[in-house]
Write a structure and sequence with these properties.
The mean pLDDT is 86. The chain starts with a helix and ends with a helix. The chain has one domain. The strands form three sheets. Strands 5-6-7-8 form a four-stranded mixed beta sheet. Strands 1-4 form a two-stranded antiparallel ribbon. The chain is α+β, with helices and mostly antiparallel strands. Helix 2 links the parallel strand 5 and strand 6. The protein has five helices and eight strands, in the order H-E-E-E-E-E-H-E-E-H-E-H-H.
């Protein structure tokens, strides 16, 4: 991969992360911000990756703008990375947000999470879901608000 392609991909990812941050701020997490520090490993030390977005207590967000995310092997690996970030951050839930082609509104972007976490979040009796679940960010936000995360908008509280 050429340096210009790598930079273009990093820029694309950064734009997606910023769009999700803005959406989260507008929808119940005013402290959401793009993570500055990322995980790394060297010969002498290691820092765990705690996700792409901070300021959402109990939640870890990994954002992707990859075209190959629909491939099972890629999705499985990315969900495992998200769960490792959740564990490292001592968070309750970890979410993989996928920029959805043709949808400018991040509320319509896909969010992927493990089936067990979906069952716990929605209080469905596990192990109802063994794989992973995909839903829109706006739908996940309503579930999170009902579970006590973030601050729901006044109109949402009445739903």
């Amino acid at each position: 991969m050429s340096p210009s392609v790598g930079k273009a991909n990093r820029d694309k990812g950064a734009r997606a992360e910023l769009a999700v941050v803005k959406w989260l701020r507008d929808n119940g997490w005013p402290g959401a911000e793009r993570a500055i520090a990322t995980g790394h490993r060297s010969r002498i030390r290691e820092r765990a990756d705690l996700g792409d977005i901070t300021g959402t207590p109990g939640l870890v967000w990994q954002v992707t703008d990859r075209g190959d995310i629909e491939q099972l092997a890629v999705m499985t690996r990315r969900l495992a990375e998200t769960d490792a970030q959740r564990a490292a951050a001592h968070a309750d839930y970890g979410f993989l947000v996928q920029r959805r082609r043709g949808a400018a509104d991040p509320g319509k972007w896909w969010v992927h999470l493990g089936g067990l976490n979906f069952a716990l979040l929605t209080r469905v009796e596990p192990p109802m879901f063994e794989g992973f679940v995909r839903l829109a960010l706006s739908d996940l936000t309503r579930l999170l608000h009902r579970a006590g995360y973030g601050t729901p908008a006044t109109s949402e509280e009445n739903r």
